[in-house]
Amino acid sequence: MKKHFVVIGLGRFGGSICRELHSLGHQVLAIDIIPEKVNTMTDYSTSSTVTDATDKEALLALGIKNFDVAIVAIGENEHASIQSTLVLKEIGIKVWVKAQNTNHQKILEKIGADRVIHPELDMGIRIAHQLDSDNIIDFINLSKNYSIVELKATGKLSNRSLIDLNVRAKYGCTILAIKRGEDVNVSPSPNDIVHEEDILVVMGSNSELKHFEEKGM
């Protein structure tokens, strides 16, 4: 189902979101105050425009009310990011915003941002967890205490069924899927067999996941 997105701020972060949403077939309006940045998104958006995103009347003239989500990806100018978020919330649109730091995040949350994104922080956490263990392929934070990880199955798990491994009872984790090459077994059955080098998609608390990775793998 196609959605309508507006991406405000076309630096590296905003530009990458714009290109990816457009490639997925969504309607994307690209906005920046700098003409050169807008020009780079001409082929990667449904439409693009040089507009001051802190100007409520200018945004209304673009039909912003009809969009599903606005992504505010303004770079170093925190004031413009906050002002743009305020205006968009006044218009009544869902807003996702890139935060520069913790104080910026707190302000964005107080003025009603629907989601605050920390690209560098989130990526730093993911990379740190990958470096922490050779078995961790990827790491996604669900909250402060819960995560989803992709773990490479070792020989210890090879040719054993999920019911035999009994991961939930032993470690408190849930195996959501088993990836084998290009094939993904979503919601595997208790009798499904794990092979060495399979990728297990596992959800649980951070302590439970750590325990499983250290003792169960």
Would you kindly provide a brief summary of this structure?
Residues 2-117 form the RCK N-terminal domain. By secondary structure, the protein is of the alpha/beta class. It has helices spanning 12-23, 35-40, 56-61, 78-91, 102-110, 119-132, 162-165, 167-171, 206-216, and strands spanning 4-8, 27-32, 47-50, 69-72, 94-98, 115-117, 136-141, 146-152, 160-161, 174-180, 183-186, 193-194, 199-205.
How would you explain this protein's 3D organization?
This protein has 217 residues and is of the alpha/beta class. It has 2 domains: 4-117, Rossmann fold (3-Layer(aba) Sandwich); 122-216, Regulator of K+ conductance, C-terminal domain (Alpha-Beta Plaits). The protein contains 9 helices and 13 strands. The chain has helices at residues 12-23, 35-40, 56-61, 78-91, 102-110, 119-132, 162-165, 167-171, 206-216; strands at 4-8, 27-32, 47-50, 69-72, 94-98, 115-117, 136-141, 146-152, 160-161, 174-180, 183-186, 193-194, 199-205. The chain has a 6-stranded parallel β-sheet with strand order 3-2-1-4-5-6, with helices on both faces. A 5-stranded antiparallel β-sheet has the order 7-8-13-10-11. Strands 9-12 form a two-stranded antiparallel sheet. Helix 2 (35-40) links the parallel strand 2 (27-32) and strand 3. The chain is elongated. The mean pLDDT is 91.
